[in-house]
Amino acid sequence: MSQTTVWVSKETKERLAGMKRYPRETFDDVIRRLMNTAEDEEPLSAEAIRGIEESLEDIKAGRLYTLEEARAELQAVWDTE
User: Fold this and answer.
1) CB within 8 A of 27, min separation 6: which ones?
2) Lowest-confidence range among 7-11, 37-41, 60-64, 65-69?
């Protein structure tokens, strides 16, 4: 394995050290684990992208419910059953 020097702030180094699963885990292992969790191996489908775009349009058009409105609507349905 080749090595290189990476400059990080003291705060970043402390955060990385705090993420170690065990004391002798290397920073390379920590960084690789973080990169693996950040990568999405399965890209969004065309259908999912369309759904997101529709949701954004709904938001822009003001077609949304507050949490309280959604609760009230669900409660009304549950109360009638």
Assistant:
1) 13, 16, 17
2) 37-41
Measured CA to CA, the distance from residue 62 to residue 69 in angstroms comes to: 14
What is residue 56's DSSP assignment?
A: H
Give the amino acid at 56: L
Quote the CA–CA distance of 6 and 8 in Å, as a whole number.
6
Q: Are 16 and 8 in contact (CB under 8 A)?
A: yes
Angle at which helices 10-18 and 27-38 cross, to 10°: 80
pTM for this structure? 0.51
Q: Give the pair of three-digit tokens for residue 74.
A: 């669900």
